[in-house]
Amino acid sequence: MSAGITKRSVMIAGHRTSVSLEDPFWAALRDIAGARRRSVQALIGEIDAVRGAQNLSSAIRVFVLDAVRGDCSIGQP
């Protein structure tokens, strides 16, 4: 299975940053955001707000994994 890495620019807390993730993580993040009635950018902002010192790309991957497992409350209504 080939999983290319895509770099995207997002606005978080008033500043622009770039995030590099494998394509399947971008797809899963889009699906999760849609299911939670959020934009991907808003969801990334919520992940950023609670990630602490963890790298943002890593925090997003862990968030996606937790969401798939049903262990994540970020972005829940």
CATH domain topology = Ribbon-helix-helix fold
Report helical residue fraction.
40-55%
Shape-level CATH architecture? Orthogonal Bundle
- The level-1 CATH class: Mainly Alpha
Shape: globular
* Spatial order of strands in the largest sheet: 1-2
Biggest pleated sheet:
2 strands, antiparallel
> What proportion strand?
15-25%
Secondary structure category: alpha+beta
Global Rg: 12 Å
Low-confidence stretches: none
Task: Provide the succession of SSEs.
Answer: EEHHH
- Domains counted in the coordinates: how many? 1
Q: How many β-strands, per DSSP?
A: 2
Q: Return the average pLDDT rounded to an integer.
A: 90
Task: Supply the CATH superfamily name.
Answer: protein bp1543
**Helical element count?**
3
N-C termini distance: 34 Å
Overview of the structural elements:
- The protein has a two-stranded antiparallel ribbon.
- The chain is globular and about 30 Å long.
- With 77 residues, the protein is of the alpha+beta class.
- 49% of the residues lie in helices and 21% in strands.
- A hairpin with a 2-residue loop joins strand 1 and strand 2 (15-22).
- The longest helix is centred in the C-terminal third of the chain and has 14 residues, at 56-69.
- It has a single domain, classed as Ribbon-helix-helix fold (Orthogonal Bundle).
- It has helices spanning 23-35, 40-50, 56-69, and strands spanning 5-12, 15-22.
- The termini are far apart.
Question: Would you kindly provide a brief summary of this structure?
Answer:
The chain is an alpha+beta fold. 49% of the residues lie in helices and 21% in strands.
